[in-house]
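User: Round two. Same drill as before: sequence, then structure, for each protein.

Assistant: Same drill it is. First protein:
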Amino acid sequence: MSNRDVVVKRLVSSINQLNRWVDIVFPELRQMFKDIKAKGAIATLRLFPSPLELVNLQPHEVIAGWKSIMKRQPGLKKALLLLQVAKKSVGTRQALDAYKFHLEQLLEEYDLVVTQLERVEEQVTDALNKIPFAKKLLTIKGISEISLAGILGEAGDLSGFSHGNSLLRHAGLHLAEASSGKWKGQIVISKRGRSRLRRFLYLATMSLVMNNPEFKALHSHTVKVKKMKKMKSIMKLLGKLARIFVGISRRNETYCPDKLQPLSPLAA
């Protein structure tokens, strides 16, 4: 997972550089593709690295180019729009050979990082398959392999924790008294623990609140009925998630949604 973090940072850097290149040479491409990572956008950059290369083409030639490297490609309407925006492009026309060469390098780096990320995530999946309780944790709707791998990578064997609160303390999510010259005795989250574990626990909880019916109902109840602030509700559910993870790992149980159901009717 540490390796994956490094690869993801490189991927983000590569995408940012591609966005910068598009802003300089072909800003109108964003009218076609909102996300520069879209397959159509990447294919267009590979085939037509500047607006000038599109000016004299016909729509069927553009579609044929897309078809040569994409299984599912945009149609005639998008091809016509691409040719239209290319003719009116305000992108730079200076040193285009240098910009094309730079684009080739950026796409090579992007392809390499995407391939490396796929390989790393395959290794993550293989490692999870060797952990006895991991499959049971993945049955919880909203828990992804990556978030679970991040938690296990930082926390280690969850069955070794005596209680969910021990996992929270390991992450630095337990409460502690903070004092300074300006204020005294305030109770805050200590953050004296593994920062990446805090991040993965938080992301996993947010995913559950969005995708898991039980956690969604609990969050709705605490916010709407108990009038708790949203972030405070999220942190409360994070603690519940830690206890569920440790309980399943220690007792080798399966996830039981019914244990989280009592508040669901109220939340509805």
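Second protein:
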Amino acid sequence: MKPKIYILLTFLLLFLSLQLPAQQQRFPKPEFDSGYEQPDPVTPEPRSGAMEYFDVAVLLAVLSLASYLVIRKRSRQGILWLSVFSMIYFGFYRNGCICSIGGIQNVTLTFFDATYAISVTALLFFLLPLVYALFFGRTFCAGACPLGAIQDLVIIKPLSMPRWLRKTLGIFPYLYLGLAVLYAATGTDFIICRYDPFIGIFRMDAPFHMIVLGIVFLLMGMFIARPYCRFLCPYGVLLNWMSKFSKWHMSITPSKCIQCKLCTTSCPFDAIDFPTEEKVTKSSRYDAKKFIIYAAVIPLWVLIGGFVGSKSHTYLSKAHPDVYLAELLIQHPELKDDPDNIDIQTFLASGKTMDILVEDARLKRKEFYTGSWILGGFIGLVIGLTLLNQVVYRRKQDYTPNRGDCYSCGRCMDYCPVDR
């Protein structure tokens, strides 16, 4: 009889569960006499594992299609519509998350925090665009990145920037990458996600200053094409490195270049390399001395950068909550009695002593000292190599896209009159 009783109870519980009304959330809203209202969430709801893998499959399909449209089909129109799909799906539908750009921080934290484990899907979102860039160039930027797509659609009258200005501003992505790695490695913050200028547009909800920042970038992008991609995006640094060694890459002409020069004004990103002038080729022989000097001072640039970076570690470390709180309580001990300061009250409720907090802050600042040295040395190396590259001349006979800077958007292909 017992099995029948168990079966009967099972069916009874199933029947009751079906009759219960569907709940909007797992726990009821809190009821406080103070008139508190539970706020609506502003971050995307967690995805199930199956749906996260579906996002990876979509990314893989978009990267494959973008590479086909760029390398084989040579279709600017196809790339454009694919980027619109990516903006709608990865941007507005998925609210900008999962993000390949923000994946830099997840990967970094995995290396420096033994208690943190990156999900497989987040790792794939970080790695797949890099792998495709190594084989096909920056097709991720062309058709899969929602941040690039939303900027690409607002380009109206792009202005060409002087080379010296582009090279100078081009150092900022390296600085942003270094800061993102430093803050993630020390467990301070994910600054790429926090200061994403377009996340507020995708989610239709963000602090006022972030909405203004996104609008400013879009307005600027009407005349300075893709300003975030070119002068801020930290993931673009990694894509640039991979794309330089790409086995296949987008070409302006499908066959031999006829030197018609129609493509020279087609690229809004100044990513087309012109044929080397004869006088430049001849003068390059006299730049050997400059090359030796610039190469010799690179270690000096690294040392100077490391020194400057180490001097900034005190300021940079203040972003960490332990350092910030320790300094605040040391300078203003009377704030311990402030019931409205949530940070301080949370610390007091944790049971930690002031000595423990100060010691934690000291150790964290020590980490920042080492990290800031490395960050400064890295920026010094970038500056040294950038200067060295100014006296390195590579003979070019045709108009070709720069393998590192080209976003594979395909605009220049439409200008080429040569048939396949």
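Residues 50-275+407-415 form one domain.

User: Perfect.
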